[in-house]
Amino acid sequence: MEIILLERVENLGGIGDVVKVRAGFARNYLLPNRKALRATDANKKVFEAQRADIEARNAEARAAAGKNSEVIDGKSYVLIRQAGESGQLYGSVSARDIADAIAADAPKGFDLARSAVVLDKPIKTIGVHQVRVRLHAEVSANVSINVARSTDEAERQARGEDVVASALEEQRAQTDAQAQELAAASIANEPSPRDE
């Protein structure tokens, strides 16, 4: 199906481009969200008549998204979750969780849809994760999501410490110390050859 784009769509084209897409994508996403028109002769004439208005609205939306991008770009957000000793979460952190954390910390009037958070798959481990937030088709921001079991652990991760590796090293050191103690105790308890 051929359509005329009314706004820039990532990996598809810019305003006014006539592109061919699958019918389902056009019917289910582009047309209902008013991102495109069917590429008929009548719609092409209507688009050309309204092109200046459409481009002006897009410029305003891009400017507003740019301001919002300055507010959140480069910020770090802490999410406290339960996790096992290996750092595997007992659930996951989704785009909704990230959008809620950003909105809670943002100034009043800042609106962020969860669809703006670009997350290929849910976050399932503790650590600091980089996430892209698409505020407009042409404007995006990068934020850090610090997933931890406690605020103390979040602070350690923010300083760059790998808390899971640190915990494993600490556990390994304790195990080695216990093994040495057991070995020393068993040597001390062995009968000497003179005792026989």
Strand content: 15-25%
Strand/helix succession = EEHEHEEHEEEEHH
The value of Rg in angstroms is 28 Å
Name the CATH homologous superfamily of the largest domain: Ribosomal protein L9, C-terminal domain
CATH architecture of the largest domain: Roll
Shape: elongated
What is the helical fraction, as a range of percent? Answer: 40-55%
End-to-end distance: 97 Å
What CATH calls the topology of the largest domain is Ribosomal Protein L9, domain 2
Helix/strand class: alpha+beta
For the largest sheet, list the strands in their spatial order.
Answer: 4-9-8-6
Top CATH class of the largest domain: Alpha Beta
Please mark out the parts with pLDDT under 50 across 5 or more consecutive residues, or reply none.
Answer: none
**Care to count the β-strands?**
9
The main sheet comes to: 4 strands, mixed
Number of domains: 2
Residue-averaged pLDDT:
85
Provide tags for this entry:
196 residues; alpha+beta; Ribosomal Protein L9, domain 1; Ribosomal Protein L9, domain 2; 2 domains; 5 helices
Would you mind describing this structure in some detail?
The protein has 196 residues and is of the alpha+beta class. Helices cover 44% and strands 23% of the residues. It has two domains: 2-69, Ribosomal Protein L9, domain 1 (3-Layer(aba) Sandwich); 72-177, Ribosomal Protein L9, domain 2, CATH 3.10.430. The strands form three sheets. It has a four-stranded mixed β-sheet. The longest helix has 32 residues, at 41-72. It is elongated and about 105 Å long. The model has no long low-confidence stretch (mean pLDDT 85).
